[in-house]
Task: structure prediction
Amino acid sequence: MTRTLYRNARFFTADEGGWADAVIVDGDSFAFVGAEGDAPATDAVVDLGGRAVLPGFTDAHTHLLMMGEALGQVGLTDARSLDEIQERLRRARATAAAVLRGRGWLFDAIPGGAPTADMIDAVVSDIPVYLDANDYHSCWVNSAALTELGITRDTPDPIGGRIERDADGEATGMLYETAAQQYAWAHRDAMTTDEQRDAAVTRVVESYLAAGVTGAVDMAFDDLALAALGRAADRGALPLRIAAHWFVANTGDDEENLAQVAEAARRARTDTNGVRVIGIKLVLDGTIDACTAAMRAPYADGSNAAPIWPAERLAAVVAAADAAGLQVAMHAIGDEASTLALDAVEEAIAANGERPRRHRIEHLEYAAPGTAERMKRLGVTASMQPVHADPAIFTNWAAQLGDHRVDRAFAWPEYEDAGTLLAFSTDAPTAPHAALANMFVATTRASALDPDVPAVHPHFALPLDRAIAHATRDAAASIGDGEWRGRIAVGQAADFIVLDTDPFAAGPESLLTTRVVRTVIAGRTAYEI
Result:
């Protein structure tokens, strides 16, 4: 087994002490971290040319197949008007075949924030068009897609979702929450071939390695994703460390819901060929941008949204998963939803007794005061995404609340101050997957999407070393891997990345232009330029 000295670099360890100038990799782990003069003899030496080295990033909340598919679709996040969206669709139609898919549009780019099928029909009406919103909780479709899906005035709204309708009761072209999942996405899954899914996985792996991501946690796992990633592993094309949470939907029937938990537990006990199923994912509410997140107080327009999971059904599922040793990850963007999540965790602890556990709440975009302290007491991880706080997409978010709640948006320091484990991720493809751009938003509260947009809530920005630690060390710890990966330390897995610029020296703006020149996983170079 080769012992290799990596020297002439600044190693940020995300560990006590913070820095080293040399490491030794013995097989797949670090055998030495410290000053080069103290390093023992090795078989090989790699000179890193004075560059900065970080632990590999773990994207602790992502959607792998969806991200891979999104990388091949029409990008609309930076289209700031309906005219621009329509022009991109018009151009894309020239090369589209039987269907046109796009992703990332923002509500405030649409007049009145109310997209309609007619707006798409004006430029593409002959084939179905499916456009996922930036938050991936809504899907905007044209008339041909409504016909393809079989949606009419008589189609009922599913539990936790809504088919938007006009005054006459006709579908307008907007599918919210579970309506998007059960109609648009289910149809997409049925029409996608294994070859297309394999191509999506390849795009994800290539993109993550180039971004310095060495591990990922899929947050809506199912049989299709498991099969696609398994095929990649069989080909030797899955170097990333993958953990997954099996998606559990509220069917409205307790027995069926618990059967999904049992299936997740079975998957967690099964050899899944390169992917570990470690828990379940529950979506408790929607998003603030679409006024579908469950809030304690109404939105600016007087509306509010009920949770997708009623308290009694949620408590039963969380208790069953907790008893089975599964990690429970709950999407909760509004303060009503995060309170509901913590209530369910507290009930599960009371039912199943005290023992080691580490459940998670995802997003926490607006949480009630005291939430961070309660999470610390219950041992619940705060899983948050700096890129969701990008000022370029914040205007609509703030407008929907329209009151003092805007002042506590994405309040990461509250979780640090409470001592709550805080894990950073991107939630790709709801936001760009680039790890360094994510760190730019975290450490500035400025925009990685549009440099002309001023920072919002800069007092919530974190120092770069802490931001990176949340995205490496703490992201790994959020799924129970902290004892063996996430840091540059003796005995830890040798997962690290080499940058062409040292952002600690060059300043946070450099994070937007810095490139990853080498990505190492388990001591092997998986990417290099």
DSSP finds 17 helices and 22 strands in the chain. The mean pLDDT is 96. The two ends are 25 Å apart (CA to CA). Residues 66-191 form a domain with the Diaminopimelate Epimerase; Chain A, domain 1 fold (CATH 3.10.310.70).
